[in-house]
Amino acid sequence: MPPDPADSPVETSFGAVSPFYDTLMAGVPYRFWSDYLGKLWKKHGTQPKSVLDLACGTGTMSRLLATRGFAVTGSDLSAGMLEVARRKTGDADLSIDFFQQDAAELDLGDLCFDAVICLFDSLNYILDPERVQSAFARVLAHLNPGGTFLFDVNTEYALAEGMFNQSCTRRDEALHYRWRSRYDPLTRLCTVHMRFEFDLGNGTEKQIFHEVHRQRAYSKEDLSVWLRAAGFADVTLYDAYSTDPPKKRSDRLFYLAVKPN
After folding, report:
1. What residue segments make up the domains of the chain, in order of their start?
2. In whole angstroms, what is the distance from residue 89 CA to residue 113 CA?
3. Helix (H, G, I), strand (E, B) or coil at 15
4. Nearest to 52 by CA among 5, 116, 110, 112
5. Closest alpha carbon to 243 in 42, 6, 11, 4
6. Among 75, 79, 220, 233, whose CB has the most other CB atoms within 10 angstroms?
């Protein structure tokens, strides 16, 4: 049985890896993801002007959306990730406010947005179902009437099939890693042990560090019910990167929920 998540401090996720996160995510097609958001917004007849990037990480998507004309605010739990986000935004001469916030306790005062996004399976990291429900309620409170909440999650199929079993040992890469995961169907928790090795560039020294990440699998039924219970309407699910409904072997799903007018 995996250890209780409460026994592991928050720093085990996105702590030591924060300075290397952008290197780790270098292959992610952020522009493709941004285009996909626009496609779904258009499909639902909405054209948001202000966007909250919830669990924004190092702010790469926040920056991209800002360069495309959106008024963007970012929020993340990790101080290390936000430090990188603020530095990158300053270097790019963009105006984005970043806040250190727990999604389940999101409180940005009177700030409201036309859209809230939460990408890259960030909600899977909330291991307590009650806190997911709290996050939904807090997102609703920060949306303008008619605003949209768009997020993605890894499915149980993805977590059970070992999607986190990955490694990179290429000689031309400065950051090497080896990840091994274990999924427990009883708790619906996936525990991922991550080992990283960063070449310091002098040919001999390497920085080695470890992180333990945990994600919880949530069913389509539960998430849909909780969204509606929070006050959302018109909850729609999509097989990732398409406008197709979920499939039996979908490994990632996108949800779009609307706050009533």
Report:
1. 10-155+218-258, 159-215
2. 20
3. coil
4. 116
5. 42
6. 75
Structure tokens at 227: 């969204």
Q: What value does the mean pLDDT take over residues 135-141?
A: 98
Helices 60-67 & 30-43, crossing angle to 10 degrees?
Answer: 60
> Tokens for 51?
């966007």
| % of the chain beyond a pLDDT of 70 | 95
CB atoms within 10 A of CB 141: 14
**Predicted local confidence at residue 201, as pLDDT:** 74
Beta-sheet strand order (sheet of 71-76): 97-100, 71-76, 50-54, 113-118, 143-154, 252-258, 233-239
How far is C-alpha 104 from the chain's CA centre? 14
Residues forming a β-bridge with 76: 100
Beta strands, E only, 44-188: 50-54, 71-76, 97-100, 113-118, 143-154, 167-168, 175-184
- Cα–Cα dist 134/149, whole Å: 14
Nearest Cα residue to 233 out of 241, 224, 220, 221? 224
Report the C-alpha gap between 181 and 196 in whole angstroms: 15
Place of tokens 């993801």: 33
Residue 23 belongs to what H/E stretch?
A: helix 21-24
**Bridge pairing between strands 206-216 and 189-199:** antiparallel
The CATH number assigned to the domain with range 159-215 reads: 2.20.25
pLDDT band at 47 (very low <50, low <70, confident <90, very high): very high
